[in-house]
Specification:
Largest sheet: 6 strands, mixed
Structural class: alpha/beta
Number of helices: 3
Helix content: 10-25%
Number of domains: 1
CATH architecture: 3-Layer(aba) Sandwich
CATH topology: Cytidine Deaminase, domain 2
Shape: globular
CATH superfamily: Cytidine Deaminase, domain 2
Mean pLDDT: 94
Order of helices and strands: EHEEHEHEEEE
Strand content: 35-45%
Number of strands: 8
């Protein structure tokens, strides 16, 4: 079970809603006290409504800011505007950080936002139960 603060969850869901026709993406760092920090990164995929590819400069900047803040990579997130909150074959193939939690937000159901967590690595998908907690 992974606990996520409601404010962080609301921020990710809001970001996905505000750009509902493209896959939003970014990184989440965790500091020494366990606090989580969101780093949105622009999606530069050639088909951003169907794929995500983090802007390399934006990703490097986010990683640098995490390192300077004494944070470690906690999670990688992205949205699926028209698909379930499940890893696609592309998501699984491109997963490069097996230690990170992968959060997928789905806007696929009208009026309902869904977010699920996974561990991805070595061609395997392991669902992670998420608990939203008040801070």
């Amino acid at each position: 079970m992974t606990r996520l603060p409601r404010t962080l969850v609301n921020r990710l869901l809001s970001q996905a809603q505000q750009s509902a026709e493209i896959e939003v993406c970014g990184l989440i760092g965790r500091d020494a006290e366990g606090r989580l920090h969101v780093y949105p990164v622009p999606n530069v995929a050639r088909e951003p409504g169907r794929l995500f590819q983090m802007d390399p400069a934006g990703q490097i900047d986010a990683m640098r800011r995490m390192r300077e803040g004494g944070e470690s990579l906690f999670a990688i997130y992205h949205s699926h505007p028209h698909a379930p909150a499940e890893p696609s074959a592309t998501d699984l193939q491109e997963a490069a950080y097996p230690e990170a939690l992968y959060l997928i937000i789905s806007l696929n159901t009208e009026g309902v936002l869904e977010m699920r967590g996974y561990r991805l690595g070595d061609g395997h998908v392991r669902p992670v139960e998420l608990e939203v907690v008040e801070e």
